[in-house]
Amino acid sequence: MARLYYDADADLGRLAKRTIAIIGFGSQGHAHALNLRDSGLDVRVGLHPESKSRAKAEAAGLVVRSVADAARDADMIMLLTPDTGQAALYKTSIAPHLTAGKTLMFAHGFNIRYTQIVPPATVDVSMVAPKSPGHRVRELYAQGGGTPALVAVEQDASGGALADALAYAKGIGCTRAGVLETTFTEETETDLFGEQAVLCGGVSALVKAGFETLVAAGYQPEVAYFECMHELKLIVDLMYQGGLNYMRYSVSDTAEYGDYIAGPQIIGPEARLAMQKLLADVRNGTFANNWIAENVNGRPAFNAYRRQDVEHPIERVGRELRRMMPFVQPKEVVPGAGGA
Question: What is the pTM of this model?
Answer without folding.
Answer: 0.92
